[in-house]
Amino acid sequence: MRGARWIMNASLLGCLTLVIGCTDYDGRVEVTGTVKLKGQPLKEGFISFSPLENQNTQAQVLIASGSYRMEQKHGLRPGKYLIRVSAGDGKTPYLTDGPPGPGGTNIISKEIVPADWNINSKQERTVNNQSPNKIDFDIP
């Protein structure tokens, strides 16, 4: 009786270790990279990845000091994605007739990323199944 209980506990521990140790985050992979605008690291902004195939994952990630990172647990599934980058100049109000934001300035500032990398983007990148994926962007 004692031996059977020990075997059952050892088997349960082995199964739990296998399940915990083999988490693949549903096929997601880590994605990292840099973003430059006119040759300089983009100070801050957002980069979005919209699926062009049937990946069922998309992301919008903060760019800080010219870099972005999606951890594997929040990453993307392999496949092709449409890329959009957005960043404001932080100075020029985009909606001059809109209500002022905190401190008397408009919250939304003028977009500094060219439209062909933003609202009219046709930029595509492929995420592969090897983690991490390093995908860098150099926006003219």
Task: Explain what you see.
The chain is mainly beta. The protein has a single domain, classed as Immunoglobulin-like, CATH 2.60.40.10. The protein has one helix and eleven strands. Strands 1, 2, 5, 10 and 11 form a five-stranded mixed beta sheet that branches. Strands 4-3-6-9 form a four-stranded antiparallel beta sheet, with no helix packed on it. A hairpin with a 2-residue loop joins strand 1 (31-37) and strand 2. The termini are far apart.
Order of helices and strands: HEEEEEEEEEEE
Summed up, the helix count is 1
Q: Tally the beta strands.
A: 11
CATH homologous superfamily placement: Immunoglobulins
β-sheet strand percentage: 35-45%
Shape: globular
* Total separate domains: 1
Q: Judging by the overall fold, what is the CATH architecture?
A: Sandwich
